[in-house]
Amino acid sequence: MTLKLAIERRLGVFRLKAAFEAGEGVTALFGPSGAGKTSVVNAIAGILRPDLGRIEIDGEAVFDSARDIDVPTPRRRIGYVFQEGRLFPHLNVRQNLRYSLLFSRAPESPGHFDRVVELLGLAQLLGRRPGNLSGGEKQRVAIGRALLSDPRLLLLDEPLAALDAHRKSEILQYIELLRDEVRIPIVYVSHVVEEVVRLADTVVLMSEGEVAASGAAEEIMGRPDLRLGTGAFEGGTVIDAKVIEQDMQYDLATLAFDGGALAVTNVDALIGEPVRVRIRARDVSIALERPQRISIQNVLQGRIAAVGDERGGIVDVSIGIGATTLRSRITARAARQLGLAPGLDVYALVKAVSLDRRSVGPA
To answer: In this structure, are residues 237 and 326 in contact, taking their beta carbons and an 8 Å threshold?
Structure first.
C-alpha cells in the first residue's frame, strides 16, 4: 500500500500545505499541537476537503481537486480511531464491533470477528456497554471496530491522549500487535517522542501546517537540526538493537548493537528479541579518557565525526561508534576546553535511565 498526498487548505489564519508519501508499516505524523496533523488525517479520511491537491491510496485517487474527485468517506475503505473512541453508548461491545461490518465491502470471512476479538483481548468485554469500560478498553474496542470494517488503511489520531500511563502502555502493546501481525498500514498521529520511537517505521515531522521533514524513523528522530519549531522535540540517536541479557535482580537489560552494548532499565522483552532505543543528545556526555568509578553504566569508545556550529552556547557533536552515529549536545565552552574536532578519539557516557525504547517485532 502506498499513500501519496499533496494538499493545501486554508483554515482561518492557519494554512495547511502538506506533501508526503507513506508505505507499509507505521507512518507517524509527529509534531507539536497545532501543527496540522489532525487536519491531514481528516483530509485522508474524507472528513476535511482540501482546497487544492490530490490524495491517492493504492493508485486510486480518493481526492483530486483538478479532476473534481472527492470519494465519500464510507467508500474510501479507511478505518479511523479517534482520541476518545466514539463508541455507541446504547450498544454493547459485541454490537459496537459488528456495526462496522455494515460498511465492509467484502463478505465477512469465517473467524475474522473472533480473530480480532482475540487479538485485542475483548472476549470478556463483549456483553458490556461503553459506560462500564475503562479508557483503555474503549480504545481497544474502537480499534477492533475499525479493523472489522475491512480497511486498507488505518488512521489513529492520538489514541493515547486521554489515557493514564498504565493504559497507554497497554494500548501501545496492542498497536504493536497490529503492526506486526495484521500488517495493515497505519498512519499514527502523535506529539509524544516516546510513542513515535516505539511504533514508527516512517516519520513525517510537521510544524506550522507544513512538512518539515520525512523519512525513516531512525533518521528523522535523530536529526539535531530539526528541534526549532517542534515544541519539546530534540535531536538524539535511534538505534536498533537486540536483547542479549536480562539482569532480573536490578531490572537491567543488555542490548547489543553495531558498535557495542547498552545497559537499559525496564525493557519488557525476551533475550533475542529486537528492540529500538532512542538516546537523547542532551543525555550523552563526552570524556577524553575512560572514566573510573562512576555511576554511569554505558561508556562507549568512539571517534568524533563532526562538531556542529554553535547555537546559543550549545553545539551538537556526532560520534562514530562502529556503524552507529551517536549525537551529543554539550556547551560550546566544554567542546572548546576538550578540543573536540573530527578524528579525535573520545568516550561517550550514557545513563542507563535516559533511554527511550520500543519493541520492533519478531526478527
So the answer is: yes
